[in-house]
């Protein structure tokens, strides 16, 4: 839990856990979502009156969609802003999206204003994003930052390189970041250090055995 890893090492740990140990990716996604759900429900500092979860097309977005379902089933008012590409959803993200549709959780593909919401959960871009973000992605991040709402980032603030801490053009300035299993090297270097806000490292069952061989 105290190990410091870069993106390449984190991906190796993920793949080892999934392919060698045999824990399915969706199981890890559910564990990740449950840790954030527990954080939200246990802490009195989060206003869960109207939660907005910003989701992308990758597994980070899948985490966000799973969190949406958990909050919905707990009786919370939650809306998903799906800001990714519907054509490029990962298999896990697609499955979580379909589950949210089954539960009739509101999913918006365009959002003009963040007024009325009390908390933003940033599940837009994960640790695998590289290079300068396109203008559409940067605009989504600007929207999030300009909302002035409290922000909880899922695994990494969107727009931060989790290995180097560099900005990918625009980045989310989170109040809290819940990162999975290991602290990322980019969280120790500006602007990644500041972007995370209060950093929590949570155990979701990912093995570090891949780093020992």
TrEMBL record:
Q: Top EC class per UniProt?
A: isomerase
Q: Where is the YjeF N-terminal domain?
A: 10-212
**Entry's Pfam families?**
YjeF_N (PF03853)
Recorded E.C. number(s)?
5.1.99.6
Listed binding positions for K(+) are: 60, 122, 158
Give the matching InterPro entries. YjeF_N_dom (IPR004443), YjeF_N_dom_sf (IPR036652), YJEFN_prot_NAXE-like (IPR032976)
UniProt lists the family membership as follows: Belongs to the NnrE/AIBP family.
Role this protein plays: Catalyzes the epimerization of the S- and R-forms of NAD(P)HX, a damaged form of NAD(P)H that is a result of enzymatic or heat-dependent hydration. This is a prerequisite for the S-specific NAD(P)H-hydrate dehydratase to allow the repair of both epimers of NAD(P)HX.
Protein name per Swiss-Prot or TrEMBL: NAD(P)H-hydrate epimerase
Native source organism of the sequence = Enterococcus dispar ATCC 51266
Question: What gene codes for this chain?
Answer: nnrE
């Amino acid at each position: 839990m105290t190990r410091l890893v870069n993106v390449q090492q984190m991906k190796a740990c993920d793949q080892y856990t999934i392919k060698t140990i045999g824990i399915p990716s969706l199981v890890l996604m559910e564990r990740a979502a449950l840790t954030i759900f527990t954080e939200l429900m246990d802490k009195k500092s989060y206003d869960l009156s109207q939660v907005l979860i910003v989701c992308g097309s990758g597994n980070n977005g899948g985490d966000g969609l799973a969190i949406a379902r958990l909050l919905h089933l707990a009786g919370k008012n939650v809306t998903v802003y799906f800001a990714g590409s519907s054509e490029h959803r990962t298999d896990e993200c697609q499955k979580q999206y379909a589950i949210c549709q089954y539960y009739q959780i509101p999913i918006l593909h365009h959002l003009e204003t963040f007024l009325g919401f009390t908390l933003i959960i940033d599940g837009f871009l994960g640790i695998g994003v590289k290079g300068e973000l396109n203008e559409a992605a940067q605009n989504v991040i600007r929207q999030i930052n300009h909302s002035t709402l409290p922000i909880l980032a899922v695994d990494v603030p969107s727009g931060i390189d989790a290995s180097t801490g560099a900005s990918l053009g625009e980045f989310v300035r989170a109040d809290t970041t819940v990162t999975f299993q290991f602290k990322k090297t980019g969280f120790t270097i500006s602007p990644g250090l500041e972007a995370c806000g209060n950093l929590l490292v949570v155990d979701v069952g990912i093995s570090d055995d891949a780093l020992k061989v």
